[in-house]
Amino acid sequence: MRKEHYLLKVLTPLHIGAGQGLGHVDLPIVREAHTNFPYIPGTSLKGALRNLEINQVARAREEKPSQVEEKLTDKEKFDPKEEDILRLAKIFGTAGEVAERDKEGLEKGKEVGAGKVLFSDAFVVLFPVKSAKGVFSLTTCPYVINRFFELLGIDQRVEDVPEGKVKVLNINGHKNLIKDNNKYKLLLEEFAFEAEESEELEKFVELVGAFVGEENKRRIVCVNDTDFMDFVSNYTEVRTHIKINLDTGTVKEGALWTEEYVPAESVFAFSLVLLEEINEEINYSREKISYSPPPTFHLGGDITSGKGFVKVQKLEVSQ
Asked: pTM of the entire structure?
């Protein structure tokens, strides 16, 4: 078994819904119960990547995606001798009748069952907030950074940030800071903060900096946990949608709703666990499963209006 870690950047506003909302937003995004932070369920990641892989196999075979899907769910059509289908089955698992057949062990050494690649939830690492200087800041907080370090197995922690202050790695060259009477201030939305340099952020900025780019690296600020919770709870993107009556050219009755999105520039972290496969035909040897997500793909809803495009990059961690 081996674990790989990835960063995911939201390129266009992302909506992964939590169903109908009871508040002022009709279609809210999914959030963690204990933090109220936006997150991306592992099921959403797996489903989107599985759909992408099925479509690629279908194009190569000049078949419909539904025909490829049937080969993974219909025991009469599943054939482990078809390498592209077997690869899909090993990565994402089988379902329905095929899974039942696997349990019976009718094809010794060819059972597939559950997928050999495990997808974790993706938690937020950086969240963009409008800044009075430099357009926006990429905010994070000690809780998020420490959670990130724990995921990567890094034995390092960031201390709490005092109320009304923010930590930055370097004051000189930071894109968002405003000098005021020999002090540096940061204005995020309607909130003002005093900035302090902190070497605690060096490892974190090093890890995410290569992914977000040199310019965005100079936008990273660490606020305290409470302020970060306030930003991710109240400063997401909310859009109003309507449906037009084609005959009258006016809004259809009852066809007005609001939808919440994770804003572009947000960054998440997730992991893949790749299990080894035991080959009974070759002295029970262990075979490594190989899989990497594509550099860009689509997640969530509203693909026809350009929403939900993301890019990912594997994290190379040196302790």
From this structure: 0.89
